[in-house]
Amino acid sequence: MYEKKYKVLIADDEYWTREKLRNMILWEKYGLEFLEPAVNGEDALQSIEEYRPDILITDINMPFLDGVQLLTEVGKKYPDIVTFVISGYDDFDYVRDTFMSGAINYLVKPVTKIELIKAVVKALEKISERENEQLELLKAASVIQDSEFSQMIQRREVPENSFRSTDNFMEFAEMSLMLIKIHNLQEAIRASGHDRNLISYNIKKEIKAAFNNENLIVFNNIYRLNEFIVVTDKSKRDLIKTAEKIRFRFSTFIKSCITICISAQSYSMESIHMAYVEAIGILMTRKYCLKDEVLISDRTGGEKEKVVAHFKPDYEKHLKNALRTGDVELIKKIVFKWTGLIKCQKNGWSYLEVKQTVRQVLTILLDYVIQKQGFMKVADVESFLETIEKTTESLDLQLLCEMLEEVIEYLIPEKEEHTTNAMAEIVHQAAGWIDEHYSEEMSLAMLAERYHVASTYFSRMFRQEIGESLILYITRRRVEKAKEYIRNSDMNLTEIAFVVGYDDYAYFSRVFKKSTGVSPRDYKSQCREEKM
């Protein structure tokens, strides 16, 4: 993934410390080469002479040549090596000496994963200050943080002491989590030339600037690439002010509706997962419209806004009957008018209310397919439904309704009509355009406008001429390209998902499995086995 590998050398006389640091991070994954650790200061000097590492992590108390002496020698002979030290609490008397010797950081044993990540990131940033490849290095540091912190917010249980930090990166007496949800990343994607790491780096740079580059953690959730997360000890009042600054900064280059959710304050980093869950819960309460919102946790026990069930119990019976009789107009009437979905923005529905209503409709549609058409068509319909569920996240009501109409017409197709030669040509041109631009955001309305055809007519003719719906065609093309990248490139799966048009890896994984029968990870393993 990175053209140049940066070498990391550990020097520590304790075997278990060396092995713990060796296995704490997947070094190779981030373009870092983990050299065989040195067992003392003299051994470290020999390794430095032979391998010329970029980063040195050394203990203080070692036989033959201690850490302070080692750093002094390194500073004289190899001033470009970035160094930092690890040692026990009883070695604080040495701290001043180590900093005088050039170390940029001091970590207390036992070193935790979060401390090591931040120290390595700081080392890469230090290197980047003096190298021409500054942007690539900063992007590499950015990726490390994204991957490791994203895993932390996904876990329900955090190992004891995994977040303890004594360095100056993160000494939060209290902390809050800010979730920044970008509902449409397409403008940023186009501006970056589809470079996921560059997009992530640039957005995080803007967030840090809004915080005046103060002491905080900022990372991009690799499982949902349109989510950026900040962990900080700022007060609620300051966070609200900063959220407004972020909205302003984003308006100039993201050009997307965003939601900023601020969790309640916590008193330990162990609660980072629950703070994230709380922020997602807050996100569900936002209004379903294309306007920015800043939402704040309220744990005071005040009255919460009631979630209304818009899909009434008797609607299910009517919808099933309409599906059974093939009454397309009645199906659309129930889905859009009876539920009130078509006017949800005007009537102030929450994101959760829209999400629940759409999910209830989709569940009934899927049940109909299983009962009426068997399991042959289920995979296609499930891909359809996944796409619609993901579209809900965009807060674009027009696009959502358009896709719901498409799935209804796919399930209850009208009688075929004659296709003119001109229309057939347009459909095949559109299919060719999709083949070339598969990674871009596209919709029925956009393609219909591009080829100057009414949306419903274009959808019907596309399905009739190509033999599958527009949504399924786009999905199949993206999955085919993903399979090519998995077979023929060294990109990781998250990057591949992004390159073929998915900013949510979990969503991509589900779509891929429904289309191929195996997960992207299993498909990658199969490809490796075939090459062996």
From TrEMBL:
Keywords: DNA-binding, Phosphoprotein, Transcription, Transcription regulation
CDD domains: REC_YesN-like
UniProt-listed PROSITE patterns: HTH_ARAC_FAMILY_1, HTH_ARAC_FAMILY_2, RESPONSE_REGULATORY
Residues modified as 4-aspartylphosphate: 59
Domain annotation HTH araC/xylS-type: ranges: 428-526
Entry keyword annotation includes Phosphoprotein: yes
SUPFAM superfamilies: CheY-like, Homeodomain-like
Domain Response regulatory per the UniProt entry, residue ranges: 7-124
Superkingdom of origin organism: Bacteria
PANTHER family named among the record's database cross-references: ARAC-FAMILY TRANSCRIPTIONAL REGULATOR, HTH-TYPE TRANSCRIPTIONAL ACTIVATOR RHAS
Function: May play the central regulatory role in sporulation. It may be an element of the effector pathway responsible for the activation of sporulation genes in response to nutritional stress. Spo0A may act in concert with spo0H (a sigma factor) to control the expression of some genes that are critical to the sporulation process.
The protein's name: Stage 0 sporulation protein A homolog
Protein's organism: Dorea acetigenes
